[in-house]
Design brief:
heterodimer, A: mainly alpha, two-stranded antiparallel ribbon, 21 helices, 2 strands, 76% helix, 1% strand, B: mainly alpha, Methane Monooxygenase Hydroxylase, Chain G, domain 1
Chain lengths: 514, 118
């Protein structure tokens, strides 16, 4: 009987998927506990969710220790891959969700929509993200994607009495469902071409396919690649598949906008890297030109659109699209060289570091905007942040740090993300793209400083001091501390990324900056 | 093979003859006294003449969604039941986990009052 059991589910499988199981249990638990919690005690659900995240982080830590005991990274009969990058993404998702939960509590009180389902859905979407990052089977990746996306659709429309929230949820649902359909179509074509749903198997079949056709893929393979890439690029909101992002970001509850722009986006990136680098690597001669076009279009369109925005959430939505453009440059660098070249690792390193620093600086910026929501002020217009320095000096200075970090000014965290991306571009001889990326990051400084200008130079419309709740203070403190700390002393974080890539390193910063 | 289609044509011919024949036989046998109510199109006892863009109560949709959720539950239960012996204890445990998650959902919708038609 035991042998029968272990045929499907071994102890190693259990140890590795424990974070996912724990999060699911806590999400279900919050649903049930919430039925018994009186209205004024709803904040306790946030505590439960944070405890769940802490338990999951502990389980990830345990999995990390078990990692070197495993002879192969594949668990659950090859449908999940547990390598160091998976662990890295798990930590990233949990950190993003934890900070987003801290920003939510007071905001939901103000909106009179404080319900336990909110936290439950957040945990469920993290479960989906984990399946996307760890998935090595296209069916599992797709299920993870849908679990995350459906939870996010509901969270976007969580302010039921707000027209904008409803509109955003409907737009996001329709476009998201459509793009998921296109993505699934592409995956089904790959299944047809290779006869397997395993990403590694698809990669091998495609390598044979390319060899048989002298490096020219058949039209079906190109069609499959295009449809799959469309779905992936939609999820990370790259131009020309970005139109949903500003609308969804503007209408969603601000705390969810922050969550979407970091954790959901990081999950999209994890999926993109898994599919394009692990699975479809043989087709890279086809998708690199496509990615070059998409990244240039993304940087251009997003930076120009951001210039004219007067709504803070829309402005940061366009800025987050622009950041996707920079990260795509790293993907171009890593896909345009042969596997063990330095540019491959530096490109991947750039993307991973970028996602890490972006998580904290962007969540911090959204946390400040979330705290502007107060009594009858919606607080997402540029005028609402005017004079923030008089109303809440600490928050205003933190916001300045987040904005400068987003613009990539050293010595703040955002600089290191861009540094490694541009380094990998130069190593892979994409000089024009590197120059373009640098030019656009300077360009971005203008609209970030427009917010700073409003905060420091303009008089406040409302002179009253801004009340900032305890959870919000914690969230802001964590984000600001990490944004500054990673910028000033990046070594431990670069070492963590090197570890996740399996690069052997010595301690010195100079060596890491290679 | 055209000759393989011959049974289908025979069926079509039989149907083509049989239906008019039954209708004709029924017309000859049945008593006939039509009234206004009897000639109305049948629609669950509701007055059928109304604006087509009328509003439905949202409860219909809730019931429909809940039906789909628990319908899919049975779709997953059937293959497991068919392969019950081969899947053994593992399959049983997996199914219990699956049902447990759905039961949590069931308790939730029950407590939220989604099952009450008022």
């Amino acid at each position: 009987m035991i042998s029968n059991f272990s045929q499907f589910f071994t102890l190693a499988d259990y140890a590795m998927v424990l974070p996912i199981i724990l999060l699911t249990l806590f999400a279900l638990g919050i649903l049930l506990i919430d039925l018994m919690v009186p209205a004024e005690w709803k904040w306790s659900n946030a505590v439960t969710a944070l405890i769940g995240i802490a338990f999951a982080a502990g389980a990830v830590c345990k999995a990390q220790q078990n990692l070197r005991l495993m002879e192969s990274p594949f668990v659950l009969s090859g449908s999940m891959i547990f390598d160091r990058i998976t662990i890295y993404f798990f930590y990233l998702f949990l950190a993003g969700a934890a900070v987003a939960i801290l920003t939510s509590v007071h905001y939901l009180e103000v909106e009179h929509e404080h319900r336990g389902e909110y936290y439950s859905l957040m945990l469920f979407s993290v479960v989906g993200m984990m399946c996307m990052a760890a998935g090595y089977d296209i069916v599992l990746i797709f299920i993870g994607l849908e679990l995350m996306a459906i939870s996010t659709y509901v969270l976007v429309g969580f302010l039921r009495r707000d027209r904008r929230s409803n509109e955003a949820a409907l737009k996001y649902l329709l476009l998201g469902a459509f793009s998921s359909g296109i993505f699934a179509y592409g995956l089904s074509l790959f299944y047809g071409l290779s006869g397997t749903t395993n990403l590694g198997g698809i990669g091998q079949a495609l390598a044979r396919h390319m060899e048989a056709n002298q490096g020219h893929p058949s039209p079906v393979a190109v069609l499959a690649l295009l449809t799959t890439a469309t779905g992936l690029l939609f999820k990370i909101a790259a131009v020309p598949f970005h139109q949903w992002a500003p609308d969804a970001y503007e209408g969603a509850p601000t705390s969810i906008t922050g969550f979407m722009s970091v954790a959901v986006k990081a999950a999209g990136w994890a999926m993109l890297l898994r599919v394009l680098v692990w699975g479809l690597y043989p087709l890279r001669s086809v998708y690199v030109p496509l990615l070059i076009f998409v990244s240039i279009a993304t940087m251009t369109a997003a930076n120009f659109a951001a210039l004219t925005q007067s709504n803070l959430k829309r402005l940061l939505a366009y800025s987050s699209i622009a950041h996707v453009g920079y990260m795509l440059l790293g993907l171009i660098a890593l896909a345009s060289v042969q596997y063990p070249a330095p540019a491959f690792f530096d490109g991947l390193k750039g993307i991973l570091i970028y996602l890490l620093v972006y998580t904290f600086m962007n969540l911090g910026a959204f946390a400040v905007i979330t705290s502007l929501r107060n009594k009858d002020v919606i607080g997402d217009e540029l005028d609402d942040i005017a004079g923030l320095f008089q109303r809440a000096p600490v928050a205003a200075v933190m916001m300045l740090a987040f904005l400068l970090s987003l613009a990539g000014i050293p010595p703040l965290a955002g600089f290191y993300g861009k540094y490694f991306i541009f380094l990998s571009l130069i190593e892979s001889q994409h000089y024009i793209l590197a120059a373009l990326g640098v030019a656009y990051s300077v360009f971005g400084l203008y609209y970030y400083l427009k917010i700073a200008n409003a905060m420091f130079m303009r008089p406040a419309l409302d002179q009253e001091r801004l009340p900032i709740s305890f959870g919000m203070k914690t969230a802001l403190g964590i984000s600001a501390l990490l944004t500054v700390f990673i910028g000033v002393y990046p070594e431990p974080f670069i070492r963590a990324v090197n570890w996740s890539l399996g690069i052997v390193h010595s301690g010195a910063v100079a060596e890491l900056m290679r | 093979m055209p000759q393989n289609y011959i049974p289908i044509f025979i069926f079509l011919a039989v149907v083509g003859i049989l239906i008019p024949l039954t209708l004709l036989a029924a017309k000859l046998v049945r008593p006939e006294n039509p009234s206004r109510t009897k000639l109305m199109p049948y629609e669950c006892g509701i007055d059928p003449v109304d604006n087509a863009r009328g509003r439905y109560t949202v409860r219909y949709y809730i019931v429909a969604i809940l039906f789909v959720v628990f319908d899919v539950e049975t779709i997953f239960l059937f293959p497991w039941a068919v392969r019950y012996k081969a899947l053994g204890v593992f399959g049983l445990v997996e199914m219990l986990v699956f049902l447990l998650i759905l039961i949590v959902g069931y308790i939730w919708i029950w407590k939220k009052g989604a099952l009450e038609w008022v």
